[in-house]
Design goal:
By secondary structure, the chain is an alpha/beta fold. It contains 8 helices and 12 strands.
């Protein structure tokens, strides 16, 4: 039995196991299983690999996309540039290669959400591994951005001091934090939504629930919105290709 899975600290929100289980059934892929592995600490990874010799590949989610890099032997170009890993392949010699398929998922989502629209400035909410992937993709598209963080040392603004005019002028706002994820569905990043307009685009990397409070606030202001489902599917399929590459 070929084994794959997802590691993170809390995985009750994740749809990855369901996605891959349905994929295996739909595409008649036999002898494969995808499981969720909640790790209290990333230092539990070697034990997980030792106890599961048939584990060929892993996805990585919050909060380990950067921490896991100390266990990776080789990095793909995207993983090096982003500084985060969300896909691990266990090579035949037992070494681990790290990849970042979030980049592909973010590219695909932005292609669908904003198309060729000329965005003069974006706001990225959050500074974790997912935020780093967003920053990489925006830089590829030559879209300037500012970062909002709880920690003043990590961003351009904090949630307590982001100017209203910055929200008004930044027509693309991306939530790269887990705020609003199930079961905390009544939460949303604290930004002045009153300055969101119908010319805005809101992209939430969260996909559970399908409409987060962040997206709902944007919809109330007439903004075009998109959740993280497209990103989930695109990065999952990219991971599958990596795990099966010869």
């Amino acid at each position: 039995m070929r084994q794959f899975g997802l590691i993170g600290r809390s995985l009750k929100h994740s749809a990855s196991e369901k996605y891959f289980t349905e994929k295996f059934s739909r595409e008649h892929i036999a002898d494969c299983r995808y499981s969720l592995y909640e790790l209290e600490d990333i230092d539990m990874l070697p034990q997980l690999l030792s106890e599961n010799p048939n584990l060929e590949g892993l996805n990585v989610t919050i909060p380990y996309k950067r921490e896991v890099m100390r266990y990776i032997d080789t990095l793909s170009y995207e993983a090096q540039m982003v500084g985060a890993v969300n896909c691990i392949r266990r090579e035949a010699d037992g070494t681990l290669s790290g990849h970042n398929t979030d980049v592909l998922g973010i590219r695909e989502t932005l292609n669908q959400l904003i198309g060729a629209d000329d965005i003069e400035q974006a706001i990225i909410l959050g500074t974790g591994g997912a935020s780093q992937a967003v920053q990489f993709v925006l830089a590829e598209r030559d879209i300037p951005f500012v970062i909002v963080s709880r920690d003043a040392a990590k961003g351009n603004y904090t949630y307590d001091n982001i100017p209203c005019e910055v929200v008004e002028e930044s027509r693309l706002i991306i939530n790269a934090t887990p705020v609003g994820t199930y079961p905390d569905v009544d939460e949303a990043p604290r930004i002045p939504y009153a300055y969101v307009t119908p010319a805005h685009y809101l992209f939430d990397l969260v996909y559970n629930p399908a409409v987060t409070q962040f997206l709902d606030y944007g919809m109330q202001r007439g903004a075009r919105v998109m959740n993280g489902e497209c990103m989930l599917k695109a990065q999952a399929e990219a991971s599958w290709e990596i795990w099966n590459a010869r």
